[in-house]
Amino acid sequence: MMTRSEFVRTCSLFGISLPFQSAINSCSDEIEAPIVSGKFNGTVLIIGAGAAGMATAYLLEQQGISYQILEADTSYGGRFRTNDDFTDFPIPLGAEWLHISKSELPAIVNDETVNIDTVLLPYSESDTSGYFSNGNLTITEIGSAVNDDEDQKFIGSSWFDFFEDYIVPSIRNKMQFNTKIASIDYSGDKVVAVDDNGQQFEADKLVMTVPLKLLQLGEVNFIPELPNNKQNAIADANIWSGMKVFLKFSEQFYPTFLYFDDSGNREGQRLYYDAAYGQSSSDNVLGLFSVGSQAEVYQQFSGDALRDYVLAELDEIFNGKASETFVDIITQNWNEQAFAKGAYLNDSASTSISRRMAESVDDKLYFAGCSYTQFDDWSSVHTAARSARDAVRELIR
């Protein structure tokens, strides 16, 4: 079975010239079937109010189907929360870029009458890429590796803002928070979900959108047990750890991107990047993105110890400039987030894992999320939204 990394190499797109090498769709170029009204007119429970859960609810709302969203956390957003206090533009603590054409935004909204004014900015050939190896820093222009349809930055907003502006208004009153589902019984005519306080919720069908790591940890009990192919996919999944760090400096001494020998491999990824790129801001903010074993290095530290470790790493590269100009720091350790417990499915995983996770069960249980997809990429907001469209098409047919 071809892995995601092997698929990227086959498409001749694998490299480290752009943030996350998330351009697989440039090769796969799938054409989606339209969402058309079907015979289903029952009720639906949606577990989780992240990207997939909200996208599912939004589409069901458009179809006039009765639904309820049950979210364990205190608010919606899942892994694309933002910080609005660190600087004068939103800091994405989770999902940050659009990794595909801007046409994906109206596809999520699914309404030609809606004017989408979200501003996105692709990178430029003149932007700089630094590579630090064996004690030496080499800085070059990104050049022709830039593709306008990949890795675009949200300007003055974020993925969270996009959903809050265009998706949340029509579904907000159908959300119930602080409701952690402990068991799902799909043995009868109805699907019954029970939260950790014993409260029961009943519907004709259920869409599960919680992070795959939570299923792997056994935090939801299924009655009867899920089919063996689904259980095996859950057991086989290698969910990467996830850590983001943002540092504010009094001046910009760093390139647009900073890579290392281990910026992209089968164990994980890491890179520093100009988090203030394109923003109308005078602040200099450097972001650190890390997943997998690379993230675990940083996750050994917290508080002042993490700050000192990161500054020491940057000081070695930039001759002490980091400590000299340091202003402030914020961090997000996704392993410590109770309703995530990690980042996302390993980029080198077999495509069979996400495909098996996308399969429905007994015409009652449906799955949507960044790791539950029939597409050849995963672990992005646009993929989560696509998986929601797939689940809704099947559910309402």
Low-confidence stretches: 1-29
Tally of DSSP helical segments: 12
Cα end-to-end separation: 30 Å
CATH topology: FAD/NAD(P)-binding domain
Per DSSP E runs of 2 or more residues, the count of β-strands stands at 22
* Oligomeric state: single chain
Supply the CATH class.
Alpha Beta
Instruction: Count structural domains.
Output: 1
Share of helical residues: 25-40%
Q: What structural category characterises the helix and strand content?
A: alpha/beta
The shape, in one word, is globular
Largest sheet: 8 strands, mixed
Structure write-up:
The chain is an alpha/beta fold. The protein has one domain (4-75, 82-396): FAD/NAD(P)-binding domain (3-Layer(bba) Sandwich), CATH 3.50.50.60. It is 26% helix and 24% strand. The protein has twelve helices and 22 strands. The chain has helices spanning 4-10, 25-28, 51-63, 104-109, 159-166, 212-216, 228-236, 293-299, 303-318, 321-325, 351-358, 381-396, and strands at residues 43-47, 66-70, 82-83, 91-92, 97-98, 120-121, 128-133, 136-141, 152-154, 175-176, 181-185, 191-195, 200-203, 205-208, 221-223, 242-249, 257-260, 264-265, 268-274, 284-292, 326-333, 365-367. The strands form five sheets. Strands 7, 8, 16, 17, 18, 19, 20 and 21 form an eight-stranded mixed β-sheet that branches. Strand 7 (128-133) and strand 8 form a beta hairpin. Helix 3 (51-63) runs parallel beside helix 12 and helix 7 crosses helix 11 (351-358). The longest helix has 16 residues, at 303-318. The protein is globular.
